[in-house]
């Protein structure tokens, strides 16, 4: 450490543009972790049953704020931005209702079977969903895509690259003015596609995909708490993600994809996909950017580019990180059970300053 190494980092208060909060006791256990760091969050709709209507999204938002209040959080300082779960049968008029609500900000595409609670997802995007896509384009509401094909014959490490050819390129050709967020990109293919694509296209990037490659899944044995979908990839892909995330390109911004699962459901014969990072997201991102020698680029990635893409104002508050070595807890309360955060037991270089 040199004398000019920063000891404190003041950021415009960031937003999380991809977050899973679950419901019920699980929601109450995790929501305050996000609210401590982020002013707003795009909340995923893959509950059971999924959030497919504006009325359901408004009711879910009410539950989120009630859970935050129950956890002792400041409900005036955290704004859940809601999404709808796209299905083959969604009526196009639901987009008009969503836009008019003021609280629904996007629609989420899960290819059927792609990830947790995605069984009700889309089977025919450009066919059965075309009226909804037209309405989204007309209302200037983003489509958020889980960018993997789900053909079981496709190698899990190739699913994102094939999604670009089979879904993204035809989608952009059919709806060139549609805002699309390619969520949690994991490959050089995804990074370069978003960087070079024509029209309103952006991408979110998670902390785990900036910090780890697929070796992290197998150090000392199979490590289920590093397992997420899309799965961690080769080092060449991690390097490409770091390059675009730290480049100052406004198409790339923060989305944790923090996805809580009970410890027993992760450490299981068929463990759930998802990494819990809401507890320590900003310290993780700070480590990734500092390792790349681009700590000064974190503010734009975390706090500027997302609001610009969504057409929302930038936050006016601040978040302060301080350089204090901090050990990630081995586990956290999670309703009647526990949850294991990503990098449990490891020491992070940064923490969120109190106050």
Describe the protein in words.
The protein is an alpha/beta fold. It has one domain (8-352): TIM Barrel, CATH 3.20.20. 33% of the residues lie in helices and 17% in strands. The protein contains 11 helices and 15 strands. It has helices at 24-35, 54-70, 93-101, 130-139, 159-174, 188-196, 207-211, 235-245, 263-266, 281-291, 298-310, and strands at residues 8-12, 15-19, 40-43, 79-85, 104-109, 143-146, 180-183, 201-205, 252-254, 318-322, 326-327, 332-334, 337-339, 347-348, 351-352. The strands form 4 sheets. Strands 2-3-4-5-6-7-8-9 form an 8-stranded parallel β-sheet, sandwiched between helices. It has a 3-stranded antiparallel β-sheet with strand order 1-10-15, covered by helices on one side. Helix 3 (93-101) packs parallel to helix 4 and helix 6 (188-196) runs parallel beside helix 8 (235-245). The longest helix has 17 residues, at 54-70. The chain starts with 7 loop residues before the first strand and ends with a strand. The model has no long low-confidence stretch (mean pLDDT 95).
């Amino acid at each position: 450490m040199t004398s000019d190494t920063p000891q404190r980092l003041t950021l415009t208060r960031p937003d999380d543009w991809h977050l899973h909060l679950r419901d019920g006791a699980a929601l109450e256990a995790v929501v305050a972790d996000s609210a401590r760091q982020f002013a707003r969050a795009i909340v995923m709709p893959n509950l059971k049953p999924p959030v497919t209507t504006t009325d359901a999204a408004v009711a879910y938002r009410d539950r989120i704020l009630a859970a935050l209040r129950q956890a002792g959080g400041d409900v005036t300082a955290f704004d859940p931005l809601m999404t709808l779960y796209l299905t083959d049968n969604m009526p196009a008029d639901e987009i008009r209702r969503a836009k008019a609500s003021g609280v629904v900000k996007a629609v989420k595409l899960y290819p059927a079977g792609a990830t947790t609670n995605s069984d009700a997802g889309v089977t025919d995007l450009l066919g059965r969903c075309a009226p909804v896509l037209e309405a989204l384009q007309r209302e200037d509401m983003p489509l958020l895509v889980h960018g993997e094909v789900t053909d079981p014959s496709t190698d899990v490490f190739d699913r994102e690259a094939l999604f670009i050819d089979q879904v993204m390129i035809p989608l952009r050709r059919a709806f060139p003015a549609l805002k699309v967020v390619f969520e949690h990109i994991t490959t050089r293919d995804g990074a370069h596609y978003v960087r070079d694509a024509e029209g309103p296209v952006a991408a979110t990037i998670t902390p785990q995909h900036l910090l780890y490659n697929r070796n992290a899944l197998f150090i000392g044995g199979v490590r289920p708490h590093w397992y997420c979908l899309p799965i961690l990839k080769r080092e060449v892909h991690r390097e490409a993600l770091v390059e675009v995330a730290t480049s100052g390109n406004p198409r790339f911004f923060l989305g944790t994809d923090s996805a809580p699962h009970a410890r027993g459901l992760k450490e299981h014969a068929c463990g759930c996909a998802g990494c819990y990072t809401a507890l320590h997201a900003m310290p993780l991102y700070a480590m990734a950017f500092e390792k790349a020698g681009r700590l000064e680029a974190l503010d734009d990635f975390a706090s500027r580019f997302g609001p610009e893409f969504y057409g929302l104002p930038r936050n006016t508050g601040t978040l302060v990180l301080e350089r204090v070595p901090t050990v990630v807890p081995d586990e956290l309360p999670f309703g009647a059970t526990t949850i294991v955060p990503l990098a449990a037991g490891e020491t992070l270089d940064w923490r969120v300053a109190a106050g």
